[in-house]
Structure formats: C-alpha cells, structure tokens
Write a structure and sequence with these properties.
By secondary structure, this protein is of the alpha/beta class. 35% of the residues lie in helices and 24% in strands. The longest helix has 25 residues.
C-alpha cells in the first residue's frame, strides 16, 4: 500500500531541505528521500572521520539575499562564527594572493612577464573578440591571452577535464564576471598605499574582495542536520538510504506514483500531489514514465565528479588560508582546503586537516584508484608544493562525490531548455530545484533561493516565480544588497503566465 503525501521531495541537499523546511511551516504533509544512508546536506554535508570534520568543497555562508541569510539564522541561530577569507593561487612554484596583489604579482612574474600580461590585456581591450562563444574567448576579452594562460587555463581544465575552447562562455559569465582586472589592480594599489576606509555609498565593489564570511562552527552539515530535525519535528519525514526508481504521473487522479528502493534492499511506494526534485536532471528524466520526449537531451547532459583526500596532520597552524587554488600543471590536485582555517572546532587540538581536491569523471583512473593510491598521491603532491612534509601526515581518508558539477559544454543550454519545456509542459506539478536539479552551477544560497520560491509557488497553487531567473545576474553572489528583487529583477516578481501548478 502506498503512503500518500502532498509534496514528495527527492534529495536532502540544500535545495531539497530548504523546500521542505519552507513548506512544512504551513503543511506537514511532506516526505523527503535521500540516497545517502548516513548524511543529509548533499555536497554541503560535513563528513566526520576519527574526530575530524571536513566540508566537501568548502562552503562559505555569504549571500546577497536577506531572505536566505535570515533563513540560515532561523535554522541555526546560535552556531555561526565569522571567519576571515584568505586564499592564494599556487603557480610555477610560487604563491599569489587572491584577490590580486599588484606588487606581489609583479615580483613573482617578473618585469618581462608582467609587461607581457599588461600588453596582452591592453590588446584584448582594444581588439575584443565579438560575441565570445567559449570560456577561452570570454576570459581572453576580460584579461588578455597571457593572463588567461597563466591564471585560468590550467586550473579550469583541471576542474572540467576538457579544453577551455569546449566550455561555454556562460561558465565564465556566471562565475567570474564581477572580477575586473583594472579595478582589481587599482584596489590592490590603494590597499597597499592608502589607509583602509569603508566604501562610499554607490561605489562598486569587486566581487572577489569580500574579506569575511559566516560559517557554522562544525561545518555546513550542522545547518542541514538542524533543518532535517526541525522538518521532522513539524510532522514531516526525512528518509535516508532511499533512491528514486520510478516516477509516474496519473493525469486522471492528478497524482504522482513513486517507487523507491532502500539501501538495505526492498521497495517503498508513495503517492504525491507535487514532486520537488533536486536529483541530477539526467537521472530524473530517465526514471519518469512514460518516457519523456526529451530523454535524449537529458542523456546528453554531462557532469564532473570530485574526490577529496583528507590528510590528518600532526601540526597545528600550518598556514592561514581557507583554501589554495593549485594552478600548477605539475600536480593533479586542483585545490587544497585547510579546515582548521574554516573552523578550529572541526579539528583536534594541535592538529590540522587538509583536504586535497581532485576533479575527475566517475569511472576514470582517479575515481577508480584504490584509496591507498590516492592517499599516497596526495601526500606526495602536498609535499611537492611545499605545504607540509609527507612524514607530517598521521592518517587519511578518501571521500568521493559523484555529479559534483554540472558541465557547461556548448550544448548544455539547448538541452536544458528542451527538457524544461518538455517537463513543465506536461507535468506542472513537477518542480526542479537546486544545482543538479536545474543543471545550473548554483552556489548554496542560489540553490536555496530556487527552493524557497518553489515552495511559494506550490503554496500559491501556480508558478508565481520563475525560479530559472535566480542567478542569471552573475554578480549576485557577492555584490552586496539584499532581497528576491535583486535575485530575479523586480519585473520578474510579476506572476508568471504559466499553467496552474495545482
């Protein structure tokens, strides 16, 4: 016999739990399922290992949206700490401050290379590529070919496992649009030469110059564990170790029939009026029956996977950075997280935990390598870049994260648009939210905003808000200001002319 609920949520990550949290304020008839048998939070979970805690990727709690910030504080009112933001780039055996320090960059690169960078920048601004179509062309227009090759090409190709010529310009526009080289250099010079002052009203803020952020004292998992507890306290359910197998819409009953498999074996069935999905779009479409006509487009969507090798170190304060970008092509590691600098409460006294992040494809050599090989590689590479000696590592573990990043290749936009038209046209009570649910590289706060607005749509009985406009403004994440209006644009708050969501 099937269990009935008003809203069935697939995935207990930031988007899924936010949707459930908002919905259960008015209606407890909500069930959330999560594939992971242990953790909620998705990629924003906090993993525990032998008394150490670490974040999967590093998640700053900073948002332009007052609504999101207020929700964070509502869910987790007493456990935020303010942390300084410090990160560097490692390239060519040297470290560069990030954001840019003009004097340090000049010193590290040398006069000849620095002059070549500025000449290349000037040339790009004088002769820009019209309508840049890929990441390479977009960054070249913004920074010049020389800086592209030094500070963008290697790291970006590590992250995505593909040429910068194959990556959509949308990726650059969404993630680095707010960073202007000229403004960054001027800010670096002012910071070095002039007394610190507060920005004047209306003065533009370079997005990468945010110098502190909020963070739960024991990692982002605190937020999502608390959200799950509060959702269940209201009478709803958060069920772990469950994976969607089949999703069927009965047009006569106006209900979804849902089949779920359990991690330990067995099946469960549910019916629901609405389904909210934060599952990867490719997986979702493959499980809908009858088969959507957009299935081939869903199967064409690609994902980049990710693994963290956490190294336990028998030393305390290693370096102050929260994370370091590893642009150097001589090592495979892409980024190093220093979890003591995220929060001292995440590590044992007098110890440290470093997270070496490797970007890969599920099933490739890195992903499939035994943990022992990955730990040996991480120890070798952390010593090579000079952060610690191999002998400083006393313990280690490996965590794999499938489908960490939706790939922005040249066809992704058309594929997503086709899927969206198909599913929204036939299934007005199916709602896709979050990073993988929408195949959009949303930050945590953007994913939450899509869920908050989806909850409003469900409670209103129609699609009042077009959630696909969240984060269309690439400067949303760190531009300052507040509110849904800035996220969507005031004109987009007008009710959408779509079919009823009831």
């Amino acid at each position: 016999m099937s269990t009935h609920t008003d809203v069935f949520v697939i995935g207990a990550g930031p988007a899924g739990l936010t949707a459930a949290y908002c919905l259960t304020k008015e209606n407890p008839s909500v069930i959330v399922i999560e594939k992971d048998p242990v953790y909620v939070g998705g990629i924003s979970r906090t993993v525990e290992y032998n008394g150490f805690m670490f974040d999967i990727g590093g998640h700053r709690f900073f948002s332009k949206s007052k609504e999101v910030v207020d929700l964070w504080k509502e869910i987790l009112p007493d456990d935020f700490i303010e942390r300084p933001r410090l990160s560097r780039i490692y390239y060519g055996g040297k470290y560069y401050s990030y954001p840019l320090s003009a004097f340090e960059a000049l010193s590290n690169l040398g006069i000849v290379t620095s002059a070549a960078c500025m000449a290349s920048f000037g040339y790009a601004k004088t002769f820009p590529i019209t309508n840049p179509g890929n990441f390479h062309e977009w960054v070249r227009n913004q920074f010049g070919e020389k800086l592209f090759s030094i500070f963008f090409k290697t790291y970006t190709e590590k992250v995505w496992g593909m040429s910068c010529d194959e990556i959509s310009a949308d990726w650059a526009a969404q993630r680095i649009k707010g960073l202007d080289l000229g403004v960054a250099v001027v800010n670096a010079l002012k910071k070095a030469l002039l007394p610190k002052r507060k920005p004047k009203a209306g003065e533009p803020v370079v997005k990468t110059l945010i110098e502190s952020f909020q963070y739960p004292r024991k990692g982002p998992g605190m937020m999502w564990d608390a959200a799950a507890r509060k959702i269940q306290k209201r009478g709803a359910k958060v069920l772990k170790g469950r994976e969607l197998q089949k999703l069927t819409y009965d047009n006569d009953r106006k209900l979804w029939d849902i089949e779920v498999s359990l991690a330990g074996g067995g099946r469960e069935t549910y019916t629901a009026r609405h389904v909210v999905s934060s599952a990867p779009v490719r997986e979702l479409v493959e499980k809908i029956t009858p088969t959507p006509i957009s299935l081939s487009h869903a199967r064409a969507l690609r994902y980049r996977d990710f693994l963290t090798v956490a190294l336990i170190v028998n030393k305390g304060d290693l370096f102050p950075d929260n994370w370091i970008y590893i642009h150097d092509p001589s090592v495979k590691v892409g980024r190093v997280q220093n979890f003591r600098s995220w929060s001292p409460e995440m590590v044992q006294p007098g110890m440290s935990c470093l997270g070496l992040e490797y970007f890969c494809f599920e099933g490739d050599g890195l992903w499939s390598a035994p943990d022992s090989e990955l730990i040996a590689l991480a120890k070798k590479e952390i010593a090579k870049i000079g952060l610690i000696a191999e002998s400083d590592v006393t313990d280690a573990c490996v965590v794999r994260q499938p489908k960490a990043y939706p790939v922005y290749d040249e066809d992704y936009r058309d594929n997503v648009a086709t899927i969206r038209r198909d599913l929204e046209g036939f299934y007005p009570s199916l709602h896709m939210v979050g990073r993988n649910g929408m195949h959009k590289y949303n930050n945590q706060d953007h994913a939450m905003m899509t869920a908050m607005l989806t909850a409003k749509n469900i409670m209103a009985g129609r699609r009042v808000y077009d959630i696909w406009n969240v984060n269309e403004d690439a400067e949303y994440h760190e531009a300052g200001g507040s509110g849904v209006k800035e996220a969507l644009g005031s004109e987009r708050l007008v009710p959408q002319k779509t079919k009823s969501a009831a």
